[in-house]
Design brief:
By secondary structure, the protein is mainly alpha-helical. It contains 14 helices and three strands. It folds into two domains: 2-91, Tyrosine recombinase, N-terminal domain (DNA polymerase, domain 1, Orthogonal Bundle), CATH 1.10.150; 118-286, Intergrase catalytic core (hpI Integrase, Chain A, Orthogonal Bundle). Strands 1-2-3 form a three-stranded antiparallel sheet. Mean pLDDT is 85; it is low at 1-6.
Protein backbone atom coordinates (compact mmCIF):
# COMPACT_ATOMS: atom_id res chain seq x y z
CA UNK A 1 0.00 0.00 0.00
CA UNK A 2 2.86 2.39 0.84
CA UNK A 3 4.42 1.87 -2.60
CA UNK A 4 1.07 2.47 -4.28
CA UNK A 5 0.59 5.73 -2.40
CA UNK A 6 4.11 6.86 -3.34
CA UNK A 7 3.49 6.15 -7.04
CA UNK A 8 0.13 7.90 -7.25
CA UNK A 9 0.63 10.93 -5.00
CA UNK A 10 1.48 14.18 -6.76
CA UNK A 11 3.76 16.71 -5.13
CA UNK A 12 0.89 19.18 -4.73
CA UNK A 13 -1.26 16.54 -3.04
CA UNK A 14 1.58 15.65 -0.70
CA UNK A 15 2.01 19.30 0.25
CA UNK A 16 -1.72 19.64 0.95
CA UNK A 17 -1.63 16.59 3.25
CA UNK A 18 1.43 17.92 5.05
CA UNK A 19 -0.18 21.32 5.66
CA UNK A 20 -3.37 19.67 6.91
CA UNK A 21 -1.22 17.65 9.31
CA UNK A 22 0.54 20.80 10.53
CA UNK A 23 -2.69 22.71 11.12
CA UNK A 24 -3.61 20.35 13.97
CA UNK A 25 -1.03 21.87 16.35
CA UNK A 26 0.59 24.84 14.59
CA UNK A 27 -0.63 28.39 14.18
CA UNK A 28 -2.25 29.57 10.96
CA UNK A 29 0.74 31.88 10.40
CA UNK A 30 3.18 28.95 10.64
CA UNK A 31 1.11 26.85 8.26
CA UNK A 32 1.00 29.71 5.73
CA UNK A 33 4.78 30.11 5.98
CA UNK A 34 5.36 26.41 5.27
CA UNK A 35 2.81 26.52 2.46
CA UNK A 36 4.55 29.45 0.78
CA UNK A 37 7.96 27.74 0.91
CA UNK A 38 6.65 24.41 -0.35
CA UNK A 39 4.69 26.02 -3.18
CA UNK A 40 8.01 27.44 -4.37
CA UNK A 41 9.60 24.02 -4.01
CA UNK A 42 6.86 22.47 -6.15
CA UNK A 43 7.24 25.19 -8.79
CA UNK A 44 11.02 24.70 -9.05
CA UNK A 45 10.59 20.91 -9.15
CA UNK A 46 8.04 21.26 -11.96
CA UNK A 47 10.64 23.10 -14.03
CA UNK A 48 12.66 19.87 -13.96
CA UNK A 49 9.65 17.76 -14.89
CA UNK A 50 8.99 16.50 -11.35
CA UNK A 51 5.32 16.23 -10.48
CA UNK A 52 5.15 13.15 -8.22
CA UNK A 53 6.12 13.16 -4.56
CA UNK A 54 8.18 10.01 -5.02
CA UNK A 55 10.26 11.66 -7.77
CA UNK A 56 11.53 14.56 -5.66
CA UNK A 57 15.35 14.56 -5.50
CA UNK A 58 18.09 16.25 -3.47
CA UNK A 59 19.11 18.14 -6.61
CA UNK A 60 15.58 19.53 -6.94
CA UNK A 61 15.70 20.76 -3.32
CA UNK A 62 19.13 22.33 -3.95
CA UNK A 63 17.76 24.11 -7.02
CA UNK A 64 14.83 25.37 -4.94
CA UNK A 65 17.21 26.80 -2.35
CA UNK A 66 19.47 28.42 -4.97
CA UNK A 67 16.56 30.14 -6.68
CA UNK A 68 14.54 31.29 -3.68
CA UNK A 69 16.95 31.84 -0.76
CA UNK A 70 19.11 34.96 -1.00
CA UNK A 71 20.38 35.07 2.59
CA UNK A 72 21.61 32.43 5.07
CA UNK A 73 18.60 33.08 7.31
CA UNK A 74 16.14 32.60 4.45
CA UNK A 75 17.96 29.49 3.25
CA UNK A 76 17.85 27.99 6.74
CA UNK A 77 14.10 28.62 7.01
CA UNK A 78 13.28 27.22 3.59
CA UNK A 79 15.47 24.17 4.16
CA UNK A 80 13.71 23.60 7.48
CA UNK A 81 10.35 23.61 5.64
CA UNK A 82 11.66 21.17 3.02
CA UNK A 83 13.13 18.86 5.68
CA UNK A 84 9.92 18.68 7.69
CA UNK A 85 7.97 17.97 4.50
CA UNK A 86 10.41 15.29 3.32
CA UNK A 87 10.30 13.47 6.67
CA UNK A 88 6.50 13.57 6.59
CA UNK A 89 6.43 12.01 3.13
CA UNK A 90 8.69 9.15 4.23
CA UNK A 91 6.69 8.60 7.41
CA UNK A 92 3.38 8.45 5.52
CA UNK A 93 4.69 6.27 2.68
CA UNK A 94 4.53 8.93 -0.03
CA UNK A 95 8.31 8.73 -0.57
CA UNK A 96 10.87 6.01 0.05
CA UNK A 97 13.78 8.25 1.06
CA UNK A 98 14.40 11.52 2.87
CA UNK A 99 15.78 13.70 0.09
CA UNK A 100 16.93 16.35 2.57
CA UNK A 101 18.94 14.08 4.86
CA UNK A 102 22.28 15.18 3.38
CA UNK A 103 21.51 18.89 3.20
CA UNK A 104 22.75 21.23 5.92
CA UNK A 105 21.60 24.71 6.81
CA UNK A 106 24.20 27.50 6.76
CA UNK A 107 25.54 28.69 10.08
CA UNK A 108 23.90 32.04 10.70
CA UNK A 109 24.40 34.27 13.70
CA UNK A 110 21.12 35.07 15.38
CA UNK A 111 20.10 38.71 15.15
CA UNK A 112 19.27 39.82 18.65
CA UNK A 113 16.29 42.08 19.30
CA UNK A 114 16.99 45.61 20.44
CA UNK A 115 17.12 45.89 24.22
CA UNK A 116 16.67 49.09 26.21
CA UNK A 117 17.79 50.30 29.63
CA UNK A 118 15.55 50.00 32.70
CA UNK A 119 15.15 53.78 32.66
CA UNK A 120 14.03 53.76 29.02
CA UNK A 121 11.68 50.87 29.72
CA UNK A 122 10.10 52.84 32.56
CA UNK A 123 9.63 55.89 30.31
CA UNK A 124 8.11 53.72 27.60
CA UNK A 125 5.68 52.04 30.00
CA UNK A 126 4.67 55.17 31.89
CA UNK A 127 4.14 57.55 28.95
CA UNK A 128 0.50 58.65 28.85
CA UNK A 129 -0.44 58.81 25.19
CA UNK A 130 -3.18 57.39 23.02
CA UNK A 131 -6.93 57.01 23.47
CA UNK A 132 -6.60 54.11 25.94
CA UNK A 133 -3.57 54.98 28.09
CA UNK A 134 -4.50 52.64 30.96
CA UNK A 135 -4.94 49.68 28.64
CA UNK A 136 -1.72 50.45 26.81
CA UNK A 137 0.24 50.76 30.05
CA UNK A 138 -1.08 47.40 31.28
CA UNK A 139 -0.02 45.81 28.00
CA UNK A 140 3.50 47.22 28.20
CA UNK A 141 3.76 46.25 31.86
CA UNK A 142 3.09 42.63 30.85
CA UNK A 143 5.54 42.74 27.94
CA UNK A 144 8.32 44.14 30.10
CA UNK A 145 7.27 43.04 33.60
CA UNK A 146 6.46 39.41 32.75
CA UNK A 147 8.45 38.90 29.55
CA UNK A 148 5.45 37.86 27.47
CA UNK A 149 5.38 37.54 23.70
CA UNK A 150 3.02 39.91 21.88
CA UNK A 151 0.91 36.91 20.81
CA UNK A 152 0.65 35.80 24.44
CA UNK A 153 -0.51 39.22 25.60
CA UNK A 154 -3.29 39.51 23.03
CA UNK A 155 -4.25 35.89 23.71
CA UNK A 156 -4.88 36.48 27.42
CA UNK A 157 -8.43 36.10 28.71
CA UNK A 158 -9.89 37.59 31.87
CA UNK A 159 -10.09 34.14 33.43
CA UNK A 160 -6.33 33.69 32.97
CA UNK A 161 -5.51 36.39 35.53
CA UNK A 162 -4.87 35.95 39.24
CA UNK A 163 -4.45 39.54 40.44
CA UNK A 164 -4.21 38.55 44.09
CA UNK A 165 -1.01 36.54 43.67
CA UNK A 166 0.09 38.53 40.60
CA UNK A 167 0.20 35.66 38.14
CA UNK A 168 -1.33 34.68 34.80
CA UNK A 169 -1.87 31.49 32.85
CA UNK A 170 -0.33 31.91 29.40
CA UNK A 171 -0.67 29.82 26.26
CA UNK A 172 2.72 29.90 24.56
CA UNK A 173 4.21 28.44 21.41
CA UNK A 174 3.05 24.96 20.49
CA UNK A 175 -0.07 25.42 22.64
CA UNK A 176 2.06 24.91 25.76
CA UNK A 177 0.64 26.43 28.92
CA UNK A 178 2.74 28.04 31.64
CA UNK A 179 2.29 30.31 34.65
CA UNK A 180 4.02 33.71 34.64
CA UNK A 181 4.41 36.23 37.43
CA UNK A 182 4.48 40.02 37.45
CA UNK A 183 5.14 42.78 39.95
CA UNK A 184 2.97 45.18 41.88
CA UNK A 185 3.30 47.91 39.26
CA UNK A 186 1.91 45.60 36.58
CA UNK A 187 -0.89 44.36 38.86
CA UNK A 188 -1.92 47.94 39.61
CA UNK A 189 -1.87 48.85 35.92
CA UNK A 190 -4.11 45.90 35.04
CA UNK A 191 -6.50 46.74 37.91
CA UNK A 192 -6.73 50.39 36.80
CA UNK A 193 -7.47 49.31 33.23
CA UNK A 194 -10.16 46.85 34.30
CA UNK A 195 -11.81 49.39 36.57
CA UNK A 196 -11.73 52.45 34.35
CA UNK A 197 -11.31 51.56 30.67
CA UNK A 198 -12.17 48.03 29.69
CA UNK A 199 -15.92 48.13 30.12
CA UNK A 200 -18.19 45.12 30.57
CA UNK A 201 -18.44 43.74 27.03
CA UNK A 202 -19.02 40.07 26.35
CA UNK A 203 -15.56 39.29 24.98
CA UNK A 204 -13.49 36.90 27.11
CA UNK A 205 -10.33 38.76 26.02
CA UNK A 206 -8.41 40.75 28.61
CA UNK A 207 -7.38 43.44 26.15
CA UNK A 208 -10.02 44.79 23.78
CA UNK A 209 -10.39 47.73 21.42
CA UNK A 210 -13.04 50.43 21.71
CA UNK A 211 -15.52 48.15 19.94
CA UNK A 212 -14.98 45.46 22.57
CA UNK A 213 -13.08 43.11 20.27
CA UNK A 214 -9.81 41.33 21.06
CA UNK A 215 -6.71 43.27 20.08
CA UNK A 216 -4.34 42.06 17.37
CA UNK A 217 -0.55 42.09 17.52
CA UNK A 218 -0.45 45.01 15.09
CA UNK A 219 -2.07 47.19 17.75
CA UNK A 220 0.74 46.36 20.18
CA UNK A 221 3.27 47.44 17.57
CA UNK A 222 1.42 50.75 17.18
CA UNK A 223 1.32 51.28 20.95
CA UNK A 224 5.10 50.92 21.19
CA UNK A 225 5.61 53.12 18.13
CA UNK A 226 3.57 55.96 19.68
CA UNK A 227 5.70 55.94 22.81
CA UNK A 228 9.18 55.49 21.36
CA UNK A 229 9.81 59.18 20.67
CA UNK A 230 8.68 60.19 24.16
CA UNK A 231 11.05 57.68 25.72
CA UNK A 232 13.93 58.59 23.41
CA UNK A 233 14.50 55.02 22.28
CA UNK A 234 15.55 53.57 18.94
CA UNK A 235 12.97 53.19 16.13
CA UNK A 236 13.99 49.52 16.10
CA UNK A 237 12.37 48.94 19.51
CA UNK A 238 9.36 46.65 19.21
CA UNK A 239 7.04 44.73 21.58
CA UNK A 240 9.55 41.86 21.47
CA UNK A 241 12.27 44.27 22.57
CA UNK A 242 10.45 44.60 25.89
CA UNK A 243 10.43 40.82 26.34
CA UNK A 244 14.14 40.78 25.48
CA UNK A 245 14.79 43.61 27.95
CA UNK A 246 12.90 41.70 30.66
CA UNK A 247 15.24 38.76 30.10
CA UNK A 248 18.47 40.73 30.01
CA UNK A 249 17.54 42.82 33.04
CA UNK A 250 16.62 39.66 34.98
CA UNK A 251 20.03 38.16 34.18
CA UNK A 252 21.79 41.38 35.12
CA UNK A 253 19.91 41.31 38.41
CA UNK A 254 21.19 37.82 39.17
CA UNK A 255 18.50 35.44 37.86
CA UNK A 256 19.74 32.05 36.71
CA UNK A 257 19.20 30.74 33.19
CA UNK A 258 17.01 27.81 34.23
CA UNK A 259 14.55 30.10 36.01
CA UNK A 260 14.53 32.46 33.07
CA UNK A 261 13.90 29.56 30.70
CA UNK A 262 10.75 28.66 32.65
CA UNK A 263 9.50 32.25 32.79
CA UNK A 264 10.03 32.79 29.05
CA UNK A 265 8.53 29.44 28.08
CA UNK A 266 11.57 28.24 26.13
CA UNK A 267 11.66 24.55 25.33
CA UNK A 268 15.46 24.52 25.15
CA UNK A 269 17.96 26.19 27.45
CA UNK A 270 20.04 27.02 24.36
CA UNK A 271 17.29 29.40 23.25
CA UNK A 272 17.49 31.25 26.57
CA UNK A 273 21.25 31.63 26.31
CA UNK A 274 20.85 34.13 23.48
CA UNK A 275 19.81 36.65 26.17
CA UNK A 276 23.09 36.45 28.07
CA UNK A 277 25.07 38.82 25.86
CA UNK A 278 24.41 41.94 27.94
CA UNK A 279 25.35 40.13 31.13
CA UNK A 280 28.96 39.57 30.05
CA UNK A 281 30.04 42.95 31.40
CA UNK A 282 28.41 42.18 34.75
CA UNK A 283 30.26 38.86 34.94
CA UNK A 284 33.54 40.55 34.06
CA UNK A 285 33.07 43.02 36.92
CA UNK A 286 32.25 40.21 39.36
CA UNK A 287 35.49 38.41 38.47
CA UNK A 288 37.46 41.65 38.80
CA UNK A 289 36.02 42.35 42.26
CA UNK A 290 35.72 38.88 43.76
CA UNK A 291 38.62 36.81 42.46
CA UNK A 292 41.94 37.27 44.30
CA UNK A 293 43.79 37.58 40.98
CA UNK A 294 41.13 39.75 39.35
CA UNK A 295 42.30 43.12 40.68
CA UNK A 296 44.92 45.30 39.16
Amino acid sequence: MGVLIAVKTTLDEAIDRFLAHLSADRSAHTVRSYGSDLAQLAAVAAESGISKASDLTPDAVRAFLRKTARTPVTRARKLSSAKAFSKFMVKTGMASQDVCSGLDAPIARKRLPKDISPEQAAQLVEAEVGKCPLRDRAILELLYGAGLRASEVVGLNLEDLELRDRSARVMGKGRKERIVFYGESCANAIADYLESERGTGGSPALFVNRQGKRLGQRTLQNIVARRRALAGVSPDVSPHSLRHSFATHMLTGGADLKTLQQLLGHESLETTQVYTHVSIERLRKVVAKKHPRGRG
